[in-house]
Batch of 3 targets.
Target 1
Amino acid sequence: MTTRNYVIDGKPFDVEIVERSGTHAVVRVNGQTHRVKAESAVEKATVSAIVNAPVARRPARAAVGDVRAPMAGRVVQLHFQAGEHVAAGAPLLVLDAMKMENTLQAPRAGRVEEIAVGVGDTVLQGALLIRLA
C-alpha cells in the first residue's frame, strides 16, 4: 500500500492506494474507499501521474493564532463560538482520535476569530481548527 498526502485548494487529502491492476485501482481518500478506472490512455497516464506525483507538504508551522489538529480525528465538542474571548490554556474543543478524547487548549489568550470545523467533522493531522486573533 502506498499513502500520499495532497493539498488541493488548501484542503489536505490523504490518499492510500490499496490495490492497482492495469487501468483499475482501489483508493482510500480521507478514509473513504473508491474504485477507480482509467477509460483511455490519456486518463491512464493522468492516474499514473497523480499516483506517482511528489507529495505536497503541509505548512511546517502554523500562524501564531492557529490551532491545528495534532492528529487525525473527529470533532466531538466545541467550547467557544467565533467572537468570544478565551484565556490561555482554556479548553477550545474536544477531538476524538482512536477512541480517545483529546481536549485542545488555547495556546494563548485572544478572541476566537474563526472556527474552521463543526461538531462531527473529521479532520486530518495539521488541519486548521480554530484561529485566534
Target 2
Amino acid sequence: MGGGFVMVPLQVMLADVKPLRANAASLAAIVPISIAGATVYYLGGSGGRPALDLRFAGLLVVGGVLGAYGGARLASRVSSLWLARALAIVLALVGLKQLAAP
C-alpha cells in the first residue's frame, strides 16, 4: 500500500478536496518520493550490491504509468460521488483484509 491510501481520504475528509483532485495531488507527490526512495535503496545495498532490482522496478514503472493513465482517464469520467464511494469501498476492503490477516 502506498501513501495514497492515507493521503487521498485525508484530503477528501479533512480538507474538503474533491476526490479527483486528491488523487491527482497524491500521484504528483509520489514522483519525488519514489525517486528519493529508489536512490537510497539503490545506493544502500549490502555488500556493495544495490538493493534495488532495476529490471523489476522497470516493469513496475511501465505498469504503474499505464495504470495511472487509464485510471486518470476513467476517473475524469466518473462523478465525484461515485469516485468517493469507490474509494470508501476499496478502503473498507483493505481494512477488512488487514483485520483478517495483518
Target 3
Amino acid sequence: MEEYIYCKACGYIMAKSHFTGRCPACGIPGEALFEAYTKQLSPGRRFLLDQHIHPIAVHFPQVLILITLLLPLIALVIGNPLREQLQIVAMLAIFVLPLTVLGGICTGLFDGRLRFRRVTTPLLVRKIIASVILQLLSLIILGVYLSSGFSGNAVWIIAALSAVGTACSIYLGRTGATMFSSFLPG
C-alpha cells in the first residue's frame, strides 16, 4: 500500500515515493517539514478523483500534436495516393487539436481545483503557462494550415511548431505524473 506524506507548511499531500526533497506545491525544501499522512477524502471528491478525467482528456492533444508533426513530414517522402490520405488525417488533427487542448486545460483546472482547492500553487501555475503556450501553438498551426495548406514551407513551419508543442506536451505529462497521487485533505 502506498505511503503518503504531507507538507506542514501548506498541507500538500503526496505519495512518499514522489518526494524529491522539496514540496512541489509551495516549494519549501526539507524532509523535516513533511509528516506521514493517512488519506481522508470525502466520498464525492474521492469519486471524482477516481474518474481520472484530466489524465484521460490530455491524451487526445498529445496524440494529435504528434500526428501534426509526423504525418506531414512522412507525406513529403511518400507518393500518392498515400500522401493525400496522410495529409487528410493531418488536416483533421490540425482542426481538432485546439479543441482538445482547450478540453485538457478545462479538465486540468477542474482537477487542480479538486485536488488542491486552488490553481495558484507554483506547480499548477507552471502547468497552466505550458498549457496556454500549447493552446497558442495549436491555433498558430491551424492558422498556418488555413493560409497555406501543406504547400511550400508551410509543412516545415507546421512541423517546427508541432515539435515545440510536443515538447510542451512532454513537460505537461512529466509534471502531471508527479502530481497524480497528490491532493489536499478534506
